[in-house]
Structures are given as structure tokens and as C-alpha cells.
Design goal:
Elements: H1 2-21, E1 22-25, E2 29-35, E3 42-44, E4 47-50, E5 57-63, E6 67-70, E7 75-78, E8 84-95, H2 98-105, H3 109-128, H4 133-138, H5 140-155, E9 160-171, H6 174-246, H7 248-263, H8 280-283
Antiparallel strand pairs: 1-4, 2-3, 2-5, 6-8, 7-8, 8-9
Length: 302
């Protein structure tokens, strides 16, 4: 009976030792096999592998896929014009050299997160300190690329290859938001006022140009009207001269009738001197003064 118990115990121990000595690495990971004696760690790729059972050797699995590091809280970064911004970055990276990472962190995920957070904070601080507030808001992609290049160099000794940095949030701290919004509102109002002033100046310019063209058109029309009138007056004078040459008496009579028509309107009461030369055609059809009646002959004496 004691032999059976001893055999079972020995079998269990052998199974446990064998299970701790054999491990499988899937294609998404690699394993760093380290020894307790301080021997150099080795790298095991995907597949079935054998090692010494702990504590003689241990296998640390490292994910070689692209991973994302997202800080739980937003960090404050200061721009070149001394304005603070709250920024939430997301760092995407992959483990390019697992042995370097293991040597730096001993395979501890928290140590990796702490180191990566510190390096990314330094890279982003340098990137934001080179630009002003307006550029920080307008050129986020350029700032992220600059920080990525800096972080790539800084993280290389850890065996980390930084793929990308993205910003999920860029905002003002609560104590600065109201001041910044008021300043932005004032700037927009000033820009609107400038545009309105520019529009008013353009409108006045167009109005002045239209008035100048109007005056030119009126002057040209007046000139043409005067020319036409002058031509008409010349023709009228020629016709009048011709008519006068044919029948001077009739011409004078016609002119007097025209003058009467222009001078007297229906319902007018005018007191005039009937002996005036102006009314000669009212006194006589030919405009001549009437002949005084002959004095009666003196009585002859007988």
C-alpha cells in the first residue's frame, strides 16, 4: 500500500515538473526564457518549447502585436505663449526587441506602462512648447508626428517601436476656458467688424463709381440733346427765314399770334395799353395803325 502511494506521489510530481518544463508560444507572442543564475535570457518563438522548471528557468510571454497605451487622465501641456492645454494622447506601439524590453522592465507590465507614460509626456511637452495656442489647435497632426518621432528615439532602448500618436482630446483647463472663449469671441467680433468695414468701403467705392458713370451719361446725353436742339433751332431758323422771305407780313402775323398764345391763358385778366405795338394785329389785320378819320369840312360862308 505504501508503495502505491509513493508511486502516485512520484507520478504527480513528475507530471507537475513536466508541465512546468514544457510551454507553448502562440503566433501572437514570443517568450523570453530567463535563468535564476544570471545567465543570458533567450528568445523562444511560436511553437512548443522545453525549459527547466521554476525556479531554475522562467518563461515570460510578450505580445508582439501593435498595442495602444492610453493614459487614464488628461495631462497638462504648456504652449510657447504660456497657455495650458489638457491633452489625452493615445500611443500605439509594438515590441520590436523583446530581450531589450525584458532587460529594462523584467517583464513587468506596470513598469512598461510607467516608463512609456514618462517618455510620452516628455515628448509631448517638447512638441507643444514649440508652438503657440493657435497652431496647437490647428496643427494637431503635425504636433503628434513631431512627438511620435521624439518618442520613437527615446523608446528605442526599451525595444519599443512607436507606430503612432493620436489625440483624443485637446481642451482648455476649466479655469482658463472662460477667459479663452471671451478672447476668441472678441477676436471673431473684431474680424467681423473688419469685414463689415471692408464691405462698406467697397460699397461706397461702387456707389461712387456708379455716380461718376451716371454723371458722365447725363453729361453726354445733355450734350447730345443740346446738339439736337441746336440743329433743330438752326433748321427752324432756316424755315422761318424762308417763310419770312416769301411773305414778311404773314410771318410777322404768325409770330404775333404765337406770342399772344404764350402770353394769354384762359381765364387771365390783363390790363394793357391797347396802343402798344405788341397789340398791333389786334387793331388791324395787317398790323398797321388805323387811319385817323378825316376832319369834317368847314362850312363855307356865302
Amino acid at each position: 500500500m505504501n508503495k502505491i502511494i509513493a508511486f502516485v506521489v512520484a507520478f504527480v510530481v513528475v507530471v507537475l515538473v513536466a508541465s512546468s518544463a514544457v510551454f507553448v508560444v502562440d503566433p501572437r507572442h514570443v517568450a523570453v526564457v530567463s535563468s535564476s543564475g544570471g545567465a543570458k535570457a533567450t528568445l523562444a518563438g511560436p511553437g512548443l518549447h522545453v525549459k527547466l522548471p521554476p525556479p531554475f528557468q522562467t518563461a515570460t510571454f510578450i505580445d508582439t502585436r501593435i498595442q495602444a497605451f492610453d493614459a487614464p487622465d488628461a495631462d497638462r501641456y504648456t504652449t510657447s505663449d504660456k497657455t495650458e492645454l489638457l491633452v489625452n494622447p493615445v500611443v500605439r506601439y509594438r515590441i520590436a526587441d523583446p530581450l531589450k524590453l525584458f532587460a529594462a522592465t523584467k517583464g513587468d507590465p506596470q513598469t512598461l506602462a510607467d516608463r512609456l507614460a514618462s517618455l510620452s509626456r516628455d515628448a509631448l511637452s517638447g512638441a507643444f512648447s514649440k508652438v503657440g495656442l493657435s497652431d496647437a489647435l490647428a496643427q494637431q497632426e503635425a504636433i503628434a508626428n513631431n512627438a511620435r518621432d521624439t518618442l520613437k528615439t527615446a523608446a528605442a532602448p526599451l525595444g519599443i517601436d512607436v507606430v503612432d500618436i493620436e489625440f483624443t482630446r485637446i481642451d482648455y483647463p476649466a479655469e482658463l476656458a472662460e477667459v479663452v472663449y471671451k478672447r476668441m469671441s472678441a477676436a471673431r467680433e473684431q474680424a467681423a467688424a473688419d469685414e463689415r468695414a471692408k464691405g462698406a468701403a467697397e460699397a461706397q467705392k461702387i456707389k461712387d463709381e456708379a455716380e461718376r458713370k451716371q454723371q458722365g451719361v447725363i453729361a453726354d446725353a445733355y450734350s447730345q440733346a443740346q446738339a439736337i436742339k441746336g440743329d433743330g433751332d438752326g433748321k427752324a431758323a432756316a424755315i422761318a427765314a424762308q417763310a419770312y422771305g416769301r411773305d414778311p407780313d404773314f410771318y410777322r402775323f404768325y409770330q404775333s399770334m404765337q406770342a399772344y398764345r404764350e402770353s394769354f391763358k384762359p381765364g387771365d385778366v390783363v390790363v394793357v395799353d391797347s396802343s402798344s405795338d405788341f397789340f398791333r394785329f389786334m387793331r388791324s389785320p395787317n398790323g398797321e395803325a388805323p387811319t385817323a378819320p378825316a376832319a369834317p369840312a368847314a362850312a363855307r360862308k356865302h
